[in-house]
Amino acid sequence: MTTPATGTIVHLTAADGFTFPAYVAQPLGKPRGAVVVIQEIFGVNSHIRAVADGYAAAGYVAVAPAIYHRVKPGDGLGVELGYTDADIQSGFGLKTASEALQGAGSMEDIQAAVNHAAQLSGGKVGVVGYCWGGLLTWRSACLVKGVAAAAPYYGGGVTTPEETARQPQCPVLAHFADEDSYIPMDTVETFRQAHPEVELHVYRAHHGFNCDQRGSYDATAAAAARERTLGFFAKHIG
Length: 238
Prior knowledge:
Strand content: 15-25%
Radius of gyration: 16 Å
Shape: globular
Mean pLDDT: 95
CATH topology: Rossmann fold
Number of helices: 7
CATH architecture: 3-Layer(aba) Sandwich
CATH superfamily: Alpha/Beta hydrolase fold, catalytic domain
Structural class: alpha/beta
């Protein structure tokens, strides 16, 4: 495993002219490709930056766009929340505001991040996201150009009828948890039946099992999901 260089903040411009920050971590040596890391409802905080660093350590250029910048711009990477009850309330409010944006909104920013990741790496680009970022990852698989593979983690809303009706344009690896209070297992099964082309795994864990800053962190589930995701990206990205 290589060691990533120190992450940096860059500014990207979406197709509609909106400029926003993103965290970029690059591997030492020639990249295998790139991974766009999409935040939870808590912003590009220390956990998401650590996730990006982890993909850089695995040989990928990692780009984590600050999706909240359209609704709450700020210095640096803007919104960086923790995991207290107050943070959760703030995060849900920002997510709701982002989902209410007119036009493509967040998807334009993800498209800009994918374009930048492709340019930096010179290779294929995958997308991975967590919580709300899991939903945006699923949408990216269906709507964003240049995505070679997508791995949504416990994406709230992915299994709703509206989202299930979407059709992915690239291979998808979906991670869910059987004790996730936000995503009922019967809707996961409906999603599985509607999308037999999606590689879907359910872990004995709770929502947020990948985040070691949350009480719901599950090291066993997180390790298994990461191993599967790295193998999935190795197959479809390089």
